[in-house]
């Protein structure tokens, strides 16, 4: 059994990791840390885990993670970069769900995250874990940077177009909508049900931290200059991201078969039949991305609909997928999660 | 007192007309028709109106509307065009909330609505009632076509840019999100809370009936060829539309002051301070459109956020605004509706 | 014009007072205080009020309220009792929406609220403002204690039974459900949409502060000993309270006509036709309580369904109703609020 | 592998059976019927099942079920009673999720369901499948009647009190709240999100079909006459039932340990620690019932909070639990479902 540790087990990505790992046949959750809840049983904070998890929260210290084979960081940004080196030195693999190691350019990272990077020397080694793009690198990685939720939905939706040079990459638009769990388990006014419920709004239009991450991912698939407008919105539901992507075609091809071919071997990317609309409820609780391809009125604008569960394929599920790869397991084990509908 | 009649009083736009008109100081609701509920008191079907409306539903026949000064059609498409002529002949003004008289090109109307138009001879006379664009014509009109909900939010958002020739009108994108009340009070599986709740999806990407209406409205503001991609989405809330509009700037101007100037005399269009995000909850229940203007990272893409309550400024409120104009009343009377927050 | 002040204008009852008072024909909002937002325009914090309120938040000091005729406290418990005396000394009427003056027994107040009462000498003078019970006293009051949200729904539902001695008052049960706005505008984990949405739970079963308040109100209507079990629940919606009340009949009467007679002159209490179910959406945004009376299978258990909007009849609307009374205005002025449906 | 058939696979209990059975290691879904969708792939109607279910809907005829070992009826009431006999004759076990075989008294069944029972001779053989009460009988059954959703939550909550004769069984109150999925996948106005969302209401107060079922279950646990008041409510969420149960204690005991002892061997009934509140989100998607025991202010009223997911422990999950028992499998296999939180 693989011994897994979770740093920051009280947030939504942390408890989602626990939901998945407690049933993972090859994994034993050996440690879950929480500065605030150290000493408390995990299932006291999360009654949904009663009967599935008898672990007690410990403090987030290397000492408490020493016996792990792999450690997940389900923490706010800025924590993983201070602990990764010590864990790697102990031969422990590190899978970071935060943004610390996502950007390869530390200067850009510091510009967007507003602090100095505590561990720039490891940035180069970190592998950006979007398996549909760089599976081989993930298998060989010690330090894994899990993609953000928006970047996962947007890249999986745009990549086939860029990989085949079919669109004007200087004019890409990603209009994205996220459920409120994306804001995390933080006591903030804007996340109150009275504020976020029964209402819809955009946020971070001036510039969101996922913009440089998406741009970096798209650049890897094209030689042209990427111009991307990314507008995130908050939609009154708990789980789910719906990315509506717009691009102008420069060549005429059968987009439906292009997408089906691109993802035919990808179990977690499901290209819907022509004419379909993707619905976040159909991926709720699962590690799947569903994609629908449209070319309205046969014009030269392509519209891609890409949906994921922000906490699963957008975070914890994809992190376990990366763990399976880097630990030499079947990529899909523990991730047979049928969506919860309705 | 103006005697108003409502044809189709059992739908959401009908009951919203009643919510507004029952408190309108210059209007008396003289008749409300419903084929299904004829003979039943309105407040028996809508207990929310108890104490405010003692009218009894009658059958949708000219005879029952004879005493009205103005008649609203809050009906499905296809009804108003069969009754408008007879009402006008009686000197009764007609305000249609459905789509029957919105498109000036009857061939295009028949293409999108799939039936022959029953009254093409009146199309030319019908006035498209977006007061912020053609107030004078509305004042003089006998037959008024109220804009659709999406077209209201999209046109108010795009028009200043087109009126000043600031953007590439061949590449406009309108990514719109609507609450479920936009689907009307119809027993359909897709509108069940178990289906529409906690989920987000696009629909009608191949082509939605509001596309030609928006295009027609935008064409009036420009001499260039309009190219518009319109993607509507369903968001899990009851009221509200959020339009996120994208265009490429061809000139550099102070967009914030451009919008503030364009709407400075428009009481129902509120341009938010620079840097704001528009939130549908802040217009819930009111006849107001709130607009926020953004130019992400100072690039050449302009992003306009335009929000309305689909049942008020997007339907019944705007219809009453048109009535005020055509009946020679103060445009704002009866529409002093402070948004319901939270 | 009556000059009104609001202490604590940033909470939900505060902004709801503003929604109502900005359209009140006899009232001018002269001051709104907020320690945190002093110096900021109210409509900057609440864009829903743009165009309706140009007041700037001031600090909560007597000096800033000196010109008011009446001051509302929309504050957490513990504030009004420290400022009421000084305001009364200035001849300013005080209407407290918090719990400071609701309980006539200061010892019980201190037991349930856990602090010493700062102004016990005024408790005796304070009038509990449930107009349907003590209208005359409210008219004559200087210091008004507005009922809590649950107590309003429960008392209006139970009182007719107790006033006529029809039930076993030693065995009353009030199973109440509230929308999340009842928790106020406070950044708390339990009020996050991800926590409170799509879920239902009871809270405070061991003892809720509204229990002694309800008990005190019921005791005034009976000579027997009141035994009440009160269980509040949180339901995933923003506004509304639904009280389901159970009592055992000791006499046989026509309950429907009893309730209709009791409330026939009460404009804000609406007894629904026999066989109806009360639905919170039908009072949303209005100052009305709707009540349905049931006697399942003709047995000896009476079930009363009583619904209100917790922020209107359960708080700010009822406070304005009390203000109208104590300032000698028409009780209903400014409260003609048609429910927002859907 | 056990071959399972599902009659009525297009409703919510049907698709939930598919969610569970597609991952059940001992079961193969051999047939799924739907009169309306015969000939269509199941995953075309339910994209959430893409990749998990390649079955095609067939017509609901015995012929199409001949190869099954067990057949589930996830149909409206009235279907199972017309097909059960033929299936049993073929040696096929029948598990009915509808109400056809729940009541042992056919006269009472006909009174509440308003039609003549098509197969009264099988009523006596049918086993009411609440495993926590009659596990042995279920193991031996050919024809299984699955409990309703409300009856499951209410019986599991009340039974320990009745089994030990601790309360006045003549005065039981069950105030129950259900998510909207309980109304099924039927196009009805009252289930529209615009109607059921953001609102709370009681329904069926005069008499609900689950009343006689609950009463029958409670009578089995006591010799005294059962007097039950049952009031169901609709709460604006999709999944979950919260039963708030009230009874008057006639003896004084340690209720917490009584409940813990009663259910200590029941994996699907989880008695929460003293002082807890049960929250439907903590059982969402799982087959678990969580129960909290309260005795407010140490009085003689006991308040039991009992929560389930209406589609799992309240329907499809419990049906699979019964199947496991009657097919001689481990009772828990295929039901290791960690709740989806948040």
From TrEMBL, chains A, B, C, D:
Keywords attached to this entry: Amino-acid biosynthesis, Arginine biosynthesis, Cytoplasm, NADP, Oxidoreductase
Enzyme's top EC category: oxidoreductase
Active site: 149
Keyword Lyase annotated: no
Major location category of this protein: cytoplasm
Pathway noted in the entry: Amino-acid biosynthesis; L-arginine biosynthesis; N(2)-acetyl-L-ornithine from L-glutamate: step 3/4
SUPFAM superfamilies: Glyceraldehyde-3-phosphate dehydrogenase-like, C-terminal domain (SSF55347), NAD(P)-binding Rossmann-fold domains (SSF51735)
Any GO MF annotation of the entry: N-acetyl-gamma-glutamyl-phosphate reductase activity
Pfam families cross-referenced by the UniProt entry: Semialdhyde_dh, Semialdhyde_dhC_1
InterPro entries xrefs: AGPR, AGPR_AS, AGPR_dimerisation_dom, AGPR_type-1, NAD(P)-bd_dom_sf, Semialdehyde_DH_NAD-bd
GO cellular component: cytoplasm
Catalytic activity from the UniProt record: N-acetyl-L-glutamate 5-semialdehyde + phosphate + NADP(+) = N-acetyl-L-glutamyl 5-phosphate + NADPH + H(+)
GO terms (BP aspect): L-arginine biosynthetic process
Protein's name in the database: N-acetyl-gamma-glutamyl-phosphate reductase
Organism, scientific name: Methylomonas koyamae
């Amino acid at each position: 059994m693989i011994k897994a540790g979770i740093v920051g087990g009280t947030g939504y990505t942390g408890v989602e990791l626990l939901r998945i790992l407690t049933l993972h046949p090859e994994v034993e959750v050996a440690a879950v840390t929480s500065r605030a809840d150290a000493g408390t049983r995990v299932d006291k904070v999360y009654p949904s885990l009663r009967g599935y998890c008898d672990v007690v929260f410990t403090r987030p210290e290397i000492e408490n993670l020493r016996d792990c084979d792999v450690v997940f960081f389900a923490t706010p940004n800025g924590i993983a970069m201070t602990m990764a080196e010590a864990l790697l030195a102990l031969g422990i693999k590190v899978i970071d769900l935060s943004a610390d190691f996502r950007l390869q350019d530390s200067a850009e990272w510091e510009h967007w995250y507003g602090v100095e990077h505590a561990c720039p020397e490891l940035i180069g080694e970190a592998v950006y874990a979007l398996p549909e793009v760089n599976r081989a690198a993930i298998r060989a990685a010690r330090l894994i940077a899990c993609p953000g939720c928006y970047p996962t939905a947007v890249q999986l939706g745009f990549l086939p177009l860029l990989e085949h040079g079919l669109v004007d990459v200087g004019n890409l638009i990603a209009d994205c909508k996220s459920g409120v769990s994306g804001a995390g388990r933080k006591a903030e006014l804007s996340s109150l049900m009275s504020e976020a419920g029964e209402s819809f709004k955009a946020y971070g239009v001036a510039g969101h931290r996922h913009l440089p991450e998406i741009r970096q991912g798209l650049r890897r698939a094209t030689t042209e200059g990427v111009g991307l407008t990314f507008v995130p919105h908050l939609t009154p539901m708990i789980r789910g991201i719906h990315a509506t992507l717009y691009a102008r075609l420069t060549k005429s091809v059968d987009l439906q078969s292009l997408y089906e071919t691109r993802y035919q071997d990808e179990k977690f990317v499901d290209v819907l039949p022509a004419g379909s609309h993707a619905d976040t409820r159909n991926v709720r609780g699962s590690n799947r991305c569903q994609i629908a391809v449209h070319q309205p009125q046969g014009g030269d604008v392509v519209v891609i609909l890409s949906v994921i569960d922000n906490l699963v394929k957008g975070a914890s599920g994809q992190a376990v997928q990366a763990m399976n790869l880097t630990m030499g397991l079947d990529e899909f084990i523990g991730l047979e999660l049928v969506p919860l509908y309705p």
